[in-house]
Specification:
This is SET domain. Pfam families: SET. InterPro entries: SET_dom, SET_dom_sf. By secondary structure, the protein is mainly alpha-helical. The protein has a domain of 288 residues. Helix content is 53%, strand content 8%. It contains 21 helices and ten strands. The protein has a two-stranded antiparallel sheet with strand order 1-2. Strands 3-10 form a two-stranded parallel sheet. A hairpin with a 2-residue loop joins strand 7 and strand 8. Helix 2 packs across helix 3 and helix 14 packs antiparallel against helix 20. The longest helix has 28 residues. It is globular and about 80 Å long. S-adenosylmethionine (SAM) binds next to helix 3 and strand 3.
Amino acid sequence: MSNRDKLELEYEDEDSGEILERIKEGGRLMSLARRMRDGDFEVGDEMKDDNFVEEIVLCQVLTNSVEVQVNEQRSLGIAIYGPNFSWINHSCSPNACYRFSVSGSELEMNYDESKLRIFASGEETVLKTWVCDESKLNNGICGYGPKIIVRTIKPIKKGEEVCIAYTDLLQPKGTRHSELWSKYRFNCCCWRCSASPPTYLDRVLQENADAHIEESKSSSDDYFYRNEAYKELINCMDDIISEYLSDGNPESCCEKLESMLTRSLQEEQPEEEQSLANFKLHPLHHLSLNAYITLASAYKIHANNLSALHSRTDDPISEVFELSKTSAAYYFLLAGVTHHLFLSESSLIAIAAHFWISAGESLLNLISNPMWNSSLNRQPANLISSSLLCNRWNKCMLMEKLEMDLVFCQSQSKSRLLEFEEISQSFLGCLSKILPPVWTFLIHGHRYFKYIKDPIDFSWLGITKNHNLKESQALQGSTGVGSSYFGRTSCCCRCEVREGIDEQKTSILQLGVHCLLYGGYLTTICYCRDCYLTSYVKNLLCQVDKQGC
Ligand SMILES: C[S@@+](CC[C@H](N)C(=O)[O-])C[C@H]1O[C@@H](n2cnc3c(N)ncnc32)[C@H](O)[C@@H]1O
């Protein structure tokens, strides 16, 4: 499918007009290049308008290509895979996800960095490409480059359509729809988009946490005023993030984003900021999520920059320590928020897995900060004390099970769903013991976090869940785990609250390893045991072991 006709029909629409112009220009240049290559070029040909085939090719690329990402760090470019993949439609509550796989030998042997080059605005941009190995040619089609693997993430009934996500599922419905329309030319009618009342996920992603005034009961002025405040917040955040991307100054970005988040939650507002005050940004809101993602990484980059600047001094820098603590707190909050949302929409499993792993990694990084040793005249820097690890941080039954599952690929005796329910409950049980002191330590004195009453259980927000039949069915068919956290979850493990410096480090380590193993466990469900992300988790866990015992 190329959607070429739809683009032509929608020419009136401003966006489509621009896209169509660019397709026409691209098609003209491609056909010109073809004629020159074939020696079939005469003066005046450059003005010819018979580029239909080239235009179709470009439209097919727009409609069917996917961004190829073989690891977390960077994207390799875009690719079009065969019909087995390209024919899969989209849903905002998909039952499948995909990942790319490339073997180490493939990366080393077939990866020729010099093959394809393009020039853009005077600067040379090098595109990497896989070189076709003649011996692998199979009827003219060669199987080189990363493989794409589609995997189910929900039970799929016979005859039911398999769908994947073309867009970010944590965006509100309006944003998803305009993105799907401008890129793919269709209006999504999946059950999540058609749900009435809207699903819990769609409601919280956009809900104003201020007093719940129903649209019909509020005055039109009030509604208008809030809408304006919402647009103002979006513009303000976009400006801060674009400024950060262009000037690369994490310090100013953190300062501005946090003032924005904090101001939107303050009860008393200066008069000139009244419109922002009218829109409360609760932590499950999609704008808060965008802000947390930027803040978690900006704090980490700021800490790394500062530590590189002082790399020659032996003294550890307390500011680096504080920045790393805040970065870990944001990663943890992101894990808590996405986990909460995942429990109501199971297709968010890969996102939740990703943030649990990032939270675990940032907590382990914090443990190896030299500041722990200096202020207390402890053992050599950068080493997690071996007594700490020989103690094996009182590894609980859940950790032992998850480690066996991840590292030794132990076979399961139960259904995946039953096992998931048990593991998730035990995980929340462990967190209810280890997290409170660690969270207090991470957020101490921070102006924004004092508004976050709990980073895992968001019942304090007072946003009630729907009784949408399809939603509860989806839940039963997938996670089935309630979002209860403090108090209500039972835990049979040996995790315990600790006091004192070594104990504090132990609690952070315990929490970090729990997050990594749980994130790794979710990864095995959505991507399988043998993928890049699970190897990444195993490597991090290996480093903990090597540093210690
Ligand atoms: C990658 S192709 C998918 C394969 C396509 N359905 C076909 O038969 O060739 C993307 C295009 O499929 C259509 N499509 C995908 N998901 C859809 C959905 N949920 N509803 C309607 N059309 C959809 C849109 O036209 C979109 O541009």
